[in-house]
Each structure stands twice: as C-alpha cells, then as structure tokens.
Design brief:
Keywords: Signal. This protein is an alpha+beta fold. The protein has a single domain, classed as Crystallins (Gamma-B Crystallin, domain 1, Sandwich), CATH 2.60.20.10. 12% of the residues lie in helices and 28% in strands. It contains 1 helix and 7 strands.
Length: 128
C-alpha cells in the first residue's frame, strides 16, 4: 500500500480529534465579529459588562474551561449572535449550570434572577 498525502492528513485528523475531547483553555481578543472563532464568548468580572473583560474563543459544541482569571469570577456573560451557550460551575461542562444564553447575554449574574454570579468555570456553545 502506498503512503499518500491524503492518508497522512487522515492520520493527523484522527489524532487531533481525540485531543479535542477534553476541555481546553482558549483565549482570543478581537473586534466585533459574530464568528465565534474570532469573537468568542464575552465575559466580564463585573456587572454591566465592566471590570476585567475578555472574549474567550470556542469551537462549536466544544467544552471550554474559562481562563484562570475568570474562574469563579464572572458577573456578565454574552455570546455572539447566532450562538446559544450553556455555562457550568464545574470544569467539564456537566452538572449545575446556566443554560440557553443567547445574544446579548446576561449583564448581571448577581441581579437575583440567577445564582451563578462568580461561580462559573466552563462553557459550551452551539451554532443556531
């Protein structure tokens, strides 16, 4: 059997697909794009989308662990348009969490309507 470039690409893809199964920490800072690969999930440490803020990049249906500075310290969260996200208190997108977050998001997780202020550690988003 002859080894071809296509065979090599399939082998690399198989290896990489196994690595993507675990939560990863991804950071991405960019402008106002609705493309998740560019914009990410916008999170802030203070209500009203203020304080320390960052766009955290993600892939479709990929569990992502929030960067260390945001673990248990998120007070505002907003996905880009065209995406719905779920955020969780654990580090593996399981168990207790806040679901169905859509654009423009939640500007105050401590407003009494949720009990997730300063408790979130991972998230997963899906294209709508």
């Amino acid at each position: 059997m002859q080894f071809t470039l296509i065979s090599a690409l399939f082998a690399v893809a198989a290896v990489l697909s196994g690595a993507a199964a675990t939560p990863v920490e991804i950071k991405a800072r960019v402008g106002n794009s609705t493309d998740a690969a560019q914009a990410g999930l916008f999170v802030c440490t203070d209500a009203g989308f203020s304080g320390n803020c960052e766009n955290v990049g993600f892939g479709n249906a990929q569990c992502v662990v929030f960067p260390g500075a945001f673990q248990n310290d998120i007070s505002a969260i907003g996905p880009p348009t065209g995406w719905v996200c779920d955020a969780y208190t654990d580090f593996s997108c399981n168990g207790d969490g806040l679901g169905d977050i859509t654009f423009p998001g939640i500007s105050d997780l401590g407003d009494g309507n949720t009990n997730y202020n300063d408790r979130l550690n991972s998230f997963i988003c899906f294209s709508t």
